[in-house]
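Q: I'm writing up a methods section and want to include an example of the input and output format. Could you take the sequence below and give the corresponding predicted structure tokens, formatted cleanly so I can copy it straight into the document?
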Amino acid sequence: MTAPVALVTGAADGIGWATARAFADAGYRVVLADLRAEAAAARARDLGPEHIGVGCNVTVEADVVAMLEQVRRDCGRLDAVVNNAGIGSPHLPTTDQRLDEFERVLHTHLSGTFLVSREARKLMAAQGGAMVNISSIAGLGGLPRRNAYGAAKAGIAAMTRSLACEWAAAGIRVNAVAPGYVETALVQKLAADGSIDAAKLRRRIPMGRLGRPEEIAAVILFLCSPAASYVTGAILCVDGGWMAFADAGDAASEA
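A: Here is the clean output for your methods example:
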């Protein structure tokens, strides 16, 4: 039996790397794509010889087309796509934000998700499959100073619903996860440079802690699995209760 194939973008670190491992453990052949080709290749080697590392800038149309052509040539099919590639945005007051930085964040998240989804759809048409896009609590609620990132993640949520409705008849399910704050290298860097207060964040989360990349990956894998066969167009929060909390004061309880 031919193993199913999963493509994960931004796969060299953080949620992307945890997701690639989860799919490999579930029996998928994984194509790990990252802007850093050498890092993607190294991660693929860590998973095993059947997995593939690919360098790709998801904002460059020619790169994305070439990547999906490589998937077609080397794997012959595509069953799952995880649009995880993205970048952070400067934590600056709106009046200090530059247009080129704003546009770069939107272009990376929105254009990248659009291009990979569009090209992957052509390869998935033969057998159907599932896509999961990475939104964020920043795209569902208001986070001060996060204009570009929030707008990009809100756009991904809207794109997810649109694609889900358009491609359902082709047997392709499209969902998104909206993570809260997750213990990744990026979040650790933000905490180290003072951009975020990790202790304050933990108090704001009803579960009292940040998420782990593996917890986000597990939900992504579920959404791509037969167990989620009737789920499409959903935006699933994986945030420890962040979006559910609407009271004043700290959310985490000592009880």
